[in-house]
Automatic annotation (TrEMBL):
GO cellular component term, pick one: nucleus
Organism: Pisolithus microcarpus 441
Classification via InterPro entries: HMG_box_dom (IPR009071), HMG_box_dom_sf (IPR036910), SOX/SOX-like_TF (IPR051356)
CDD domains found in the cross-reference section: HMG-box_ROX1-like
Name of the protein described by the UniProt record: HMG box domain-containing protein
Residue ranges of every copy of the HMG box domain listed in the record: 7-76
GO MF annotation: an example: DNA-binding transcription factor activity, RNA polymerase II-specific
Gene3D superfamilies reported for this sequence: High mobility group box domain
SMART domains: HMG
Residues within the DNA-binding region(s): 7-76
């Protein structure tokens, strides 16, 4: 839906790095198929690059920016607000498990794993995260139950000896009986 006169912005160093990383097809769709997660994995790899490696990508970005300035000398970035807000999908994203998984996959890539070896390692990560999540869910539920029963007991003991114990609890008149 862009106009034919639309001028794209020059890419920054990370965008060039991400494009090259994706073109190398280091992450297969069997490992990860969600582009948000792929970008997060590549971002972890970018953050772990040395300054010398990042400098190469920054120089490429500066060269692309200079070429862009030659091609479009009067270009000036001016974002245009949307007339209507986009419809948000009800999708669970950016969960703790997703972030941990992406970080572990990035570590595997930096360790030099690829292909079948990477797929097997990611399957093991997925299995360990599933058991970790189920362990946390069970422990959290039992801890919450213990805490709530202890809090209820503490709350009742504070007011049981007082003279206001005959007062019924507050009930909103807006609620049905």
């Amino acid at each position: 839906n862009k106009s034919p006169n639309h001028i794209p912005r020059p890419r920054n160093a990370f965008m060039l790095f991400r494009s090259a990383f994706a073109a190398a097809q280091k992450i297969r769709t069997t490992v990860e198929h969600d582009n948000r997660h792929i970008t997060r994995i590549i971002a972890h790899c970018w953050n772990r690059l040395s300054d010398a490696d990042k400098r190469v990508w920054r120089e490429k970005a500066a060269a692309e920016k200079a070429l862009h300035a030659q091609k479009y000398p009067n270009y000036r970035f001016s974002p245009i607000g949307r007339a209507t807000k986009p419809i948000k999908r009800n999708v669970r994203r950016n969960g703790i498990e997703d972030k941990k998984r992406c970080e572990k996959v990035a570590d595997l890539l930096l360790a030099g794993k690829s292909g079948e070896e990477l797929e097997d390692a990611v399957k093991q990560i997925d299995m360990s995260l599933k058991t970790e999540v189920s362990d946390h869910a069970g422990n959290d539920a039992s801890l919450d139950a213990e805490d709530s029963s202890a809090n209820d007991h503490d709350w009742r003991s504070q007011f049981s000896d007082s003279e206001d114990s005959n007062i019924p609890p507050f009930r909103s008149p807006l609620l049905p009986p």
